[in-house]
Automatic annotation (TrEMBL):
Organism (species): Variovorax dokdonensis
Name this polypeptide is given: Aminopeptidase N
Gene Ontology MF terms in the entry: alanyl aminopeptidase activity
Cofactor(s) required for function per UniProt: Zn(2+)
Family listed: Belongs to the peptidase M1 family.
Length: 885
């Protein structure tokens, strides 16, 4: 329910105000007569009064519905409409309610509820979309049994799908047909799904460990079937992994995935009928990159794992969103790591996950939209599908596993399902189950304090210092923890922080293997005896907690860790710290001071990494990637975006020219990976070859050489897969070479009928390095391209988000034109699709850190949006909080 004050402004909903519903809905029988212009929905519900509730009225949620009839036990009933609610009073304790409504799916540009995409019906009901289909108690703690009857034109909509099992189908008069589906499991309304259209399916039958047969289906539009093999294989691997790792079996006779090109999210875990953005289903080597293959595997796994962590056990209320999302992100991360045959590939996956956390979630924790993993309030729940809920929530679950061990965590999961299968529960219930299954663990002992990770916002800062007593052979580490204030939370109590630590000798020998320290106090000291020499501490191995680690490493110590640490994450981290240190020094220096942006020691360290034959190519690519502009900016008190951009570009150019010979050799060594396979080793080699091409084209730009740009264009033409082709195109575009225009035109001609590939074409140009302010005019031209449509979320993201959210050097213009463009697009999108608009509106969350003239211009742009009287509550919440930040 969306409350509003007397001025009509949205009012915040608070977690502390949660109360069970006054009524429960036991069964839902839905009948759909599907028509794009006017779909008729007949909803028959068996409802009973909550025994704990007083004689309250029944309030059903609705949004943009046309109400035609309301019957109670077959008789006409008095009712009233209050805002977006259908209100009935004087009801019996148990009754049947019939509600007949109509809606207009073809006009539903919000893509929430029932909508039409390319002549096909789809639904999206999470979080509060079901109320756009019929009046209902649209909240996650109301779990009911559903049966669904669909009727539609057989010619236009030959495929009719919903949750559960198909129990009946047949033909009707006038060229129509019907299908009836029954879901054997109770579910909340947000997990309801319906699909109807002209679709084809890849099918596979599999047998679970129990011997039960299952039909797996991946539905797509005709012409895309050849791009579904990887998604199907990913689904099968997910099923096998969940049975092996957690003993969780597929509980349905049929499991379906359907892809649509118009979707606000990546995918949706509706029980038995997952609806996906095509971006996370369609792949073949000609049209998808290695990153696409990896993302499909991860997202297919994520949505399948929701079948238990989200569907069988769901959230009591939306404040508990991380109960399902944080846990399931953790599960899909573990799935991806467990599929890696080699330890180096597992480390690469972990580093990639941490990069997302630190480049996106840490800034969120430090900005105006900061909120705990379990928020205390919201105005629009869609705004809280954030990296804090997902990625930080996953880190909280990972810390639980660290504290109880892998087997202990599996035991806790088993207890969680024994206690709560079929229920809507809380984050506390999950944490309690993990603790109770491990009664002698640190988690159980510290559980009340550990749960501060759910209630306190912000990124803790862990300051460490070390001392060595040579006479006693004792090394001492002292930790101080703190957490900055966040909106609504000034004072923070100490967290439980598991810290994985090892010790490395100056010669590179490991003096102490990994130990897990548990920091619980504001200040705490740990001694390590029997240490024969002063060590270099390797702290926070594997990124064992989502904190900012402060340790005054010398350059020599970081070079030692980079060269010798047995923990791959901290080897990478050492390179990041060295690169960040160089960037900060260059930013602080007077422009044109003449000092090199990268020291010779750093260059030589990178040379050793690039030429080390013992290192995996994917790991090399990560180590050689400099800290991003966004990450650098987050380390500064005040930010001059153009200065940060100039410094990082200078660092890239220096690394390219200084290692020119090594980049050539790296390209030659990794250019040929044989028959295409998206496995981690092959993908890593292609990634390093692509990085080498970028560096060689950058070096060519500095020297005026034309050889390597020419070779890169030939690589583009000869490529046998999308990864190699796109890497070559990226090298030409990012270096600003004249040959880029030819390659871009050729790329568009080759893939003009492949929507997802054209998204890449748009995004590459909108995200290109800015040289002389040329990107914004290009973005404006791209929006006029015949292939661009702002109504399609993928296409809007490919151009507008790539520029405004992912290209800070081009977006933050001294003339404020980037901010004006951004505010225009937020307003334009808000009238079409508020969810997409609200996500774009997050682009200036950190405006208050900017130096002038950027700061004032950014605030003016935000205020311009906030002043709109017709703004959606989605976008209004974001910009209002931004102005307060």
């Amino acid at each position: 329910m969306q409350l509003r004050d007397i001025q009509g402004q949205p009012v915040a909903i608070h977690r502390e105000d949660y109360a069970p519903p006054a009524y429960w809905i036991d069964t839902v029988d839905l009948t759909f007569d599907l028509d794009p212009a006017k779909t008729r929905v007949l909803n028959r519900m068996r409802i009973r009064r909550n025994a704990d509730a007083s004689n309250q009225p029944l309030r059903l949620h609705g949004d943009e519905l046309n109400l035609a009839r309301v019957l109670v036990d077959g008789q006409g009933a008095s009712f009233r409409i209050e805002g977006d609610q259908l209100v009935l009073e004087n009801l019996p304790d148990a009754f049947e309610l019939e509600v007949f409504t109509t809606c207009q799916p073809a006009k539903n540009t919000k893509l929430m509820g029932l909508f039409v995409s390319q002549d096909t019906f789809f639904t999206q009901c999470e979080a509060e979309g079901f109320r756009r289909i019929t009046y209902f108690l649209d909240r996650p703690d109301v779990m009911a049994s559903y049966s669904v009857l669909m009727r539609a034109s057989k010619d236009q909509y030959p495929v009719l799908l919903s949750n559960g099992n198909l129990v009946e189908e047949g033909d009707l008069a006038d060229g129509r047909h019907f299908a009836k589906w029954v879901d054997p499991f109770k579910k909340p309304s947000y997990l309801f799904a319906l699909v109807a259209g002209k679709l084809v399916a890849r099918e596979q039958r599999v047998k679970g460990r129990s011997g039960r047969d299952h039909l797996l289906q991946v539905y797509v539009r005709a012409g895309d079937l050849d791009k579904t093999e990887h998604a199907m294989n990913s689904l099968i691997r997910s099923i096998v992994w969940d049975e092996a790792r957690f003993g969780l079996s597929l509980d349905l006779d049929r499991f379906m995935i359907v892809a649509t090109s118009d979707f606000n999210m990546g995918a949706m875990e509706n029980k038995g009928l997952n609806i996906f953005n095509t971006k996370y289903v369609l792949a073949n080597q000609a049209t998808a990159t290695d990153a696409d293959y990896a993302n499909i595997e991860s997202v297919v796994g994520h949505e399948y794992f929701h079948n238990w962590t989200g569907d069988r056990v769901t959230c009591r209320d939306w404040f508990q969103l991380s109960l399902k999302e944080g846990l399931t992100v953790f599960r899909d991360q573990e799935f991806s790591q467990d599929l890696c045959a080699e330890a180096s590939a597992r480390a690469v996956k972990r580093i990639e996950d941490v990069r997302v956390l630190r480049s996106v979630q840490f800034p969120e924790d430090a900005g105006p939209m900061a909120h705990p993993v379990r928020p205390d309030s919201y105005i629009e729940i869609s705004n809280f599908y954030t990296v804090t809920i997902y990625e930080k929530g996953a880190e909280v679950v990972r810390m639980m596993q660290t504290l109880v061990g892998r087997e202990g965590f599996a035991a806790g999961m088993k207890l969680y399902f024994e206690r709560h299968d079929g229920q809507a529960v809380t984050c506390d219930d999950f944490a309690q189950a993990i603790a109770d299954a491990n009664p002698h663990s640190d988690l159980t002992r510290l559980l009340p304090q550990f749960k501060r990770w759910y209630s306190q916002a912000g990124t803790p800062r862990l300051k460490a210092r070390g001392t060595y007593d040579a006479a006693e052979r004792v090394y001492t580490l002292h930790f101080d923890q703190s957490c900055p204030p966040t909106p609504g939370q000034s004072n923070k109590d100490p967290f439980v922080i598991p810290v994985n630590v090892g010790l490395i000798g100056a010669s590179g020998r490991e003096l102490l293997a990994t130990q897990t320290l548990v920091v619980t106090q504001a200040g705490e000291t740990f001694d390590f005896a029997g240490v024969d020499e002063e060590p270099v501490p390797s702290i926070l191995r594997g990124f064992s907690a989502p904190v900012v680690l402060e340790f005054d490493y010398s350059d020599e110590q970081l070079l030692t860790l980079l060269a010798h640490d047995t923990d791959p994450f901290n080897r990478w981290e050492a390179a990041q710290r060295l690169g960040l240190r160089a960037a900060m020094a260059a930013i602080d220096a007077a422009p044109g001071a003449g000092a090199p942006v990268l020291s010779n020691d750093f260059i030589e360290a990178m040379r050793r990494v690039l030429t080390d034959t013992s290192l995996d190519a994917a790991f090399k690519e990560l180590v050689l990637t400099l800290p991003s502009e966004t990450y650098i900016a987050e380390q500064l008190e005040t930010v001059d975006p153009q200065r940060v951009h100039a410094v990082r570009e200078a660092m890239r150019a220096r690394l390219a020219t200084a290692l020119h010979a090594e980049w050539q050799q790296a390209f030659e060594d990794n250019r040929d990976t044989g028959a295409y396979s998206p496995d981690p080793r092959s993908a890593g080699r292609r990634a390093l070859a692509g990085m080498a091409l970028v560096s060689l084209c950058l070096a060519a730009r500095e020297s005026g050489d034309t050889v390597w740009p020419g070779k890169t264009l030939q690589r583009f033409k000869d490529a046998g897969n999308m990864t190699d082709r796109f890497n070559a195109l990226h090298a030409l575009v990012s270096s600003g070479h004249a040959l880029a225009a030819q390659a871009l035109a050729s790329f568009h001609a080759m893939f003009k009928d492949e929507a997802l590939v054209i998204d890449k074409w748009f995004a590459l140009q909108a995200g290109a390095p800015d040289r002389g302010g040329d990107v914004l005019p290009l973005v404006r031209q791209l929006m006029k391209h015949p292939d661009f449509s702002i109504k399609n979320p993928n296409r809007a993201r490919s151009v507008i988000f790539s520029y405004c959210s992912a290209n800070p050097g081009a977006f933050h213009r001294p003339d404020a034109a980037g901010y004006v463009f951004w505010s225009d697009r937020v307003i334009e999108l808000d009238a079409i699709n508020p969810q997409v608009a609200a996500r774009l509106a997050r682009g200036l969350d950190r405006w208050s850190k900017l130096v002038e003239p950027y700061r004032g211009a950014a605030r003016e742009a935000i205020a311009r949006i906030a002043a709109r009287p017709d703004l959606s509550k989605d976008t209004l919440e974001v910009v209002t909080r931004a102005l307060q930040g």
